[in-house]
Amino acid sequence: MIEVRNLVKKYGEVTAVRGISFDAKPGQVTGFLGPNGAGKTTTMRMLTGFMPPTSGKATVAGYDVFEQSMEVRKRVGYLPESVPLYRDMTARNYLMYMGEIRGLKNVRAKADDVLERVGLTRRAQSRIRTLSKGMRQRVGLAQALLHDPQVLILDEPTIGLDPIQVLEIRDVVRQLGRDHTLLFSTHILSEAEQVCDNLVIINQGQIVAEGSPAQLRAELERGGRVLVRAEGPVEQMIAAVSAIPTVAHAEAAVEGVVVTPRDANVDPRPEIAQVVVQNGWRLVELRPLAVNLEEIFLELTRQVAPAAEEASERADADGGEGGDEAGEGAREDGAREDGAREDGAREDGAREDGAREREDEEAKS
To answer: Per DSSP, what are the bridge partners of residue 295?
Structure first.
């Protein structure tokens, strides 16, 4: 179970996440949907304990991500957007190494178990550098499953994959969603509709909608656009329908005439039918226009949140104290990252030597 309440993350004067609240329930795939830069990855990093929130509260598997970060990390499997893998290790050795870091027992048995779950048993002894990108994503997913976590957080796991690999990863995600609390980030609309039981749509750091795909579709269809098909001159029909007081706009489309009502609570179809019949045109079809996830997404994210726009303008205009502080913070973060990369490079070398020694021992045995 993931519970998020009024979560905020600021970088200097820029607010990346603006007081969001949502739940992700066990046994469901919750889709975290939004355009690039909406705040999806920042939110996921806070939920995994990678970075602290500025304010608000979030609990994962019953533990506070700020006050009980280590307990959260024990119960979360995290697949970041760019999977960090040691390419000279075999898939099995990499998973065994990660299991040792986590302090797990029987690491070989656990590694083989998760390799089977993600469909990589046959490539267990293959070096990671020889695997396709889709298979490397599966290795990353196996790493997230290694310690049998209660919660899985996957950040755009299908990005950069070919269509066949995408379908394979989606199937794995659907299966995992039955047994875990699974938060699944994506900006691919068709993917969210096929995989997710519940959707949380975020834009400019704010949640703009939440519900199942069917619920969101029904919400927008109520008082939404209407499709009119009739046998008559299209231009005259548009003019006649546009004159109806309850109609805001009418335009030609491939299927017929699309009508937008003036008031979402007033159905214009009776008046439209009356106008069509009065003009002697044969009415073929009159129904609410079907709404797909793409239309829902565009409708909900079309307008930039005014608060976010103002924050961006202030950050650009200030260029002073707040901007300097943000710049200094970024430089300090960069310096820390550089140091971490240097340390990581030295550790990589040591780990690669260890991996080769283990492989030699296995070959001898």
So the answer is: none
For position 305, what pLDDT does the model report?
43
* The length of the chain, given as a count of residues: 365
pLDDT at position 7 over 90: yes
Please, what CATH class does the domain formed by 225-290 belong to? alpha beta
CA-to-CA distance for 51 and 49, rounded, in angstroms?
Answer: 5
- Confirm if 5 and 21 have CB atoms less than 8 A apart: yes
Q: How far apart are alpha carbons 116 and 362 in whole angstroms? A: 21
- Identify the H or E element spanning 139: helix 133-145
Task: Write the class of the CATH domain 2-218.
Answer: alpha beta
57 touches 7 (CB < 8 A): yes
Which of 186, 223, 194 is CA-nearest to residue 299?
Answer: 223
Residue-wise pLDDT tens digits, 286-303: 988 766 666 677 766 664
CA distance 247 to 128: 60
